[in-house]
Amino acid sequence: MAINIELLWNQGLTLGELEEFVAHARAAGGDAATPIEEITHDQDPTLHLGWRVTAQGVTRPTRLVAMPHRLMWNLHSMLEQIGGGDGDVRGLLSEIIDLDAELWEALMKHVGE
User: Fold this and answer.
1) 77 and 50 housed in the same domain
2) pLDDT, tens digit, 9 for 90 and up, residues 35-74
3) What is the DSSP string of the chain?
4) Domain count of the fold of the chain
5) Is residue 17 part of a domain?
6) What local confidence, expressed as pLDDT, does residue 52 receive?
């Protein structure tokens, strides 16, 4: 299954955004030889909107990585709330977004290992 990682910019690009784009592309199986495509406007191909990397997904063997205890506890608690509820998670959206960001940050610490 191919995965598209895209970086779009409106008024500039920061080094952090570029680093995150590369980290996502590597996590999806991209390497130094993976081509980067330019994303252009549909009606004006001279207008550059960003970059895209198409990767085939993670192809390397699965590794075990350490998860901070606090994050593991928060993830367990969130799943318990969702599983014990009535299926409506809208009230948990803010917490889900925060937990997703924490989980992604923890995962990205292991990219490139």
Assistant:
1) no
2) 999 999 889 989 889 999 988 766 555 667 778 888 889 8
3) --EEEEEE-SS---HHHHHHHHHHHHHTT--TT---EEEE-SS-TTSEEEEEEEE----SPP------HHHHHHHHHHHHHHHHS-S--GGGHHHHHHHHHHHHHHHHTTTT-
4) 2
5) yes
6) 92
